Structure prediction request, 195 residues.
Amino acid sequence: MSSFHERTLVLLKPDAVKRGLVGKILTRFEDAGLKIVALKMAKISREFAENHYPNTPEWIRGMGEKTLKSYQEHGKDPIQEIGTDDPMEIGEMIKGWNVDYLTSGPIVACVIEGVHAISVVRKLCGFTLPADADPGTIRGDFSTTSPVIANELKRAVRNLIHAAGDPEEAAQEIAYWFPEGEFCEYKTTAEEVMF
Ligand code: CDP
Ligand code: MG
Prediction:
């Protein structure tokens, strides 16, 4: 792998697998000239799901803040909807629901490699909450769900896909999901003509 290439971790969450979107979603990455270098399907335990996420106070707060912003944009009152407007409290609820979500069916995990792979994959995924994700992105094109409906049903926002957020997350998550380092080295035709 040349020095300007990056690797990132992508999960196709249980809703993506159950909806038969694995092929369509992976095609988005292949079409962008990115390459799959590791791929597997797994049904994970609650403990494994919990440890997949950073679980830091900043990350928990961030999830709560995304909910509050979404409520505001959709004209909903958080106290009425979820009983609190404290981002930490909301984030803690979502943290538990994420474990239910990630263990609700099989997941496809893969390592995607390419130039600027970490940021490009995040852009192709789109914003966390599908109702607020741009059209053309995976989350924007294949879903319209939001915290407004998900919280009422006491579950995480089913947004089809996870992608590591930055180089640090990518390194940690790749090591977590592919501890044997089972990566395949090969050259794609896109790489030969694009760079
Ligand atoms: O996945 P991403 O990095 O875009 O977002 P995150 O802030 O790291 O949140 C992790 C996951 O928690 C999301 O992908 C959603 O499935 C879930 N979440 C949620 O259900 N409701 C929110 N308001 C924010 C996140
Ligand atoms: Mg994240």
Observations:
- The two ends are 14 Å apart (CA to CA).
- The chain has one domain: 3-184.
- The longest helix spans residues 57-73.
- Strands lie at 5-12, 35-42, 107-115, 161-163.
